[in-house]
Design goal:
The chain is mainly alpha-helical and 140 residues long. It has one domain. It has six helices and two strands; from the N terminus they run H-H-E-E-H-H-H-H. A two-stranded antiparallel ribbon has the order 1-2. It binds zinc ion. Zinc ion binds next to strand 2 and helix 3.
């Protein structure tokens, strides 16, 4: 008898799923409100596009890709702007959370991290569940 092994999805696809699940949670946590709306009325007036999950320290730094301190809701305009002017979000973050939190995050980002399949599966489950629980709390 032939044994049919269940085909696993690729690690890349799993990473995309984890990014999505995490991003949905972050946007919900921040009430779909762009971080820049807390900076000034002028900055808030520039908000355009859909809410996204912006990484203060770019997600290429894998160790902080799923770090809740590192991720905040942003409109697409400010998320794009962040690529060219990271100072805007960085100064907002330091003002809101303090320099020690920022420095701890920078330190974390310098670790070498490779996400494994079980870790990613755990992340997907964790944030799906958190989103569900949060949704119940707010009655959505
Ligand atoms: Zn914005």
């Amino acid at each position: 008898m032939k044994y049919h092994k269940k085909k696993l999805i690729t690690l890349r696809k799993l990473l995309t799923k984890a990014d999505l699940s995490f991003s949905q949670y972050i946007r919900h946590r921040d009430h779909n409100q762009c971080f820049a709306s807390e900076i000034s009325k002028d900055e808030a007036a520039k908000c355009t596009g859909f809410p996204q999950c912006a990484h203060l320290i770019k997600r290429g730094k894998k160790a902080v890709r799923f770090d809740e301190r590192n991720c905040h809701c942003s409109c697409s305009y400010h998320n794009y702007l962040h690529n060219h002017y990271p100072e805007i979000m960085t100064s907002w973050f330091i003002k809101k959370y303090g320099e020690p939190v920022y420095l701890a995050l920078v330190l974390s980002s310098r670790r070498i991290k490779k996400w494994t399949r079980p870790e990613l599966e755990e992340l997907i489950k964790k944030y799906k569940l958190r989103l569900l629980n949060k949704s119940n709390e707010t009655g959505i």
